[in-house]
Amino acid sequence: MTLTGHLHRWSGSALRHIPAESSLDVLDFRYSGRGADNRWNEPGSPTLYLAGDEGVLIAEWGRHFAMNRTVQLQQMTVERSAFSLELSIDAVLDLRSGGVCDALSIDNAPYCFLDIPFARATADFVRHTTDAQALLVPSMGFLDDLERWCLVAFLEKLPPDPCSFISSVTPRGPLRWG
């Protein structure tokens, strides 16, 4: 089966966090995927990361703590506002699936995705050679439980108005460390 045969419509809830008291709307994605430390995209590739549940949100948030941050950036990191998004995406490829990994000739999944260059290369290949608009990927915090996931959306492949694929936004509360 080709990768096209593995693309499926996906609808559901996913979680996003943004800096607390941000002047930007939760659906403003201008900075999404711009960081140098993202696993599933090269810096500058417009990519939205969403968590499948609260535990994944917290685990993935924890990846971004660093000791050597400026005071301003550290404050943005430790105080976050969480939101639940209801969304529907037409073409999603699920990298938690053995069949998908076989079609991509990937061995040792999901552990191979711990290697950031490998994860980026996999996502970049899918991004540029298929109609996939997003990936469902295993959470790096829960590799022993493939039911725990992140949604990695390729923003350039989705409509520019997020309201066309996000039907509702619900505030879920603050996240704070310290």
Note down, in words, how this protein is organized.
- The protein is α+β, with helices and mostly antiparallel strands and 178 residues long.
- It has one domain (3-176).
- Helices cover 21% and strands 31% of the residues.
- The protein is built from four helices and six strands.
- The protein has helices at 54-62, 71-78, 98-103, 116-129; strands at 8-19, 47-51, 79-94, 134-138, 149-154, 166-176.
- Strands 1, 2, 3, 4, 5 and 6 form a six-stranded mixed sheet that branches.
- The longest helix has 14 residues, at 116-129.
- The relative contact order is 0.26.
Provide tags for this entry.
178 residues; 6-stranded mixed sheet; alpha+beta; single chain
Summarize the structure.
The protein is of the alpha+beta class.
The tally of strands reads 6
- What low-confidence regions span 5 or more consecutive residues with pLDDT below 50? none
SS content category: alpha+beta
Q: Tell me, what's the shape? A: globular
Helix content percent band: 10-25%
Rg on CA atoms, Å:
16 Å
The whole-number mean of residue pLDDT values reads: 92
Q: Count the DSSP helices.
A: 4
N to C succession of SSEs: EEHHEHHEEE
Secondary structure topology:
Layout: E1 8-19, E2 47-51, H1 54-62, H2 71-78, E3 79-94, H3 98-103, H4 116-129, E4 134-138, E5 149-154, E6 166-176
Parallel strand pairs: 3-4
Antiparallel strand pairs: 1-3, 2-5, 3-6, 4-5
